[in-house]
Write a structure and sequence with these properties.
Blueprint lengths: L8 E3 L2 E3 L4 H7 L3 H14 L4 E4 L5 E6 H12 L2 H13 L2 H5 L2 H22 L6 H15 L1 H20 L3 E12 L2 E7 L4 E7 H6 L8 E10 L2 E11 L4 H12 L19 E4 L2 E4 L24
Antiparallel strand pairs: 1-9, 2-4, 3-4, 5-6, 5-8, 6-7, 8-9, 10-11
Helix pairs in contact: 2-3, 3-4, 6-7, 7-8
Length: 304
């Protein structure tokens, strides 16, 4: 079921078709099977879009539903993937992809990606997977048709989440990268969880900057296996001030614990330095006497 924090988060509908190739072929059915599943999902759901990005080569865009179904077929089987296809289509995805607005928005996305890649070729090289979410965010704020499509996709994702027992969606944010790993914050509905995940996988999905929102899909088509897919997200209720406050709170995770002011600790308690931060530890100071604690008088209880 959808957690309350998910009410305004929507997956950015388009991702690179090769986002999960390395993860799926490392322990799945191999590249040949992956290509077979990809072709089937293009036929069942949406053919996606092939874009020439100049010296960057050719980019094949696919949709989040198609990629989720491909991953399901690779990790489990085609029968389960086709069940997910049916759920998406009943939720309205098939009808949406046949609309004029959908085709119009795809063309907008194609031109925006070409322009963005050209503008970055002369400067610092930016990963195409990172450019995709940025383009969609800009288009969503500039074009009413793109925002409307985003809201339609949001409704579809919510319906699928409610109808598919094997799927749970969670809202999250990237806190920071730590060497090869990444620290993420996930809202599970009851509390906020901090998890360590593979940093390279997040980057391949287009989640690069600290504070970047995402939607986590957790699939369980069998009791012994859980598959986690991270998708860049757009906050439909985006507020610049709230975003700045959230980023400040996330950045605080990287700061060491504050050192207590002098005078707040007993005489036999000093601060031992450890690494880059100060961690209070009980260390016996030289010449300090053992602290004595006065006994607490037992309260009298009278029977009424």
């Amino acid at each position: 079921m959808t957690a309350p924090a998910m009410s305004s988060y929507c997956e950015i509908p388009f991702v690179s078709a090769t986002t999960l190739d390395e993860a799926l072929t490392s322990s799945g059915s191999g590249k040949a099977a992956l290509q077979k599943y990809r072709q089937e999902m293009r036929r069942q759901l949406d053919p996606g879009m092939r874009i020439s990005v100049g010296r960057g080569g050719t980019l094949q865009l696919t949709t989040v539903p198609a990629l989720a179904c491909i991953a399901t077929a690779t990790r489990w089987n085609m029968q389960d993937a086709l069940k997910l296809v049916e759920i998406y289509n009943k939720a309205g995805f098939a009808q949406l992809t046949q609309s004029k607005d959908y085709k119009y928005v795809m063309n907008l996305m194609c031109e925006a990606l070409k322009a963005k890649v050209r503008s970055t070729e002369e400067g610092a090289r930016t990963a195409v997977t990172e450019i995709i979410p940025g383009c969609w965010e800009e288009l969503t704020t500039e074009h009413e048709e793109v925002r409307s499509l985003t809201e339609c996709m949001h409704d579809i994702f919510v319906k699928v989440d409610q109808q598919a027992e094997q799927l749970k969606r969670w809202a999250g944010r990237l806190v920071r990268f730590e060497d090869e790993n990444a620290l993420v914050s996930i809202e599970t509905g009851e509390r906020e969880q901090l998890r360590v995940v593979d940093g390279a996988y997040l980057k391949s999905a287009g989640i690069h900057r600290n504070g970047a929102p995402f939607v986590l899909h957790e699939y369980r088509w069998s009791p012994d296996t859980t598959m986690s897919l991270f998708f860049p997200a757009f906050d439909l209720d985006y507020d610049a001030k709230a975003e700045a406050a959230l980023l400040e709170r996330l950045n605080n995770y990287a700061k060491p614990l504050p050192e207590p002011p002098a005078g707040l600790l007993p005489a036999d308690f000093v601060v031992a330095k450890s690494g880059s931060g100060s961690i209070p530890q009980p260390v016996k100071a030289e010449g300090a006497k053992a602290a004595t604690v006065a006994p607490v008088p037992r309260a009298k209880v009278s029977a009424s």
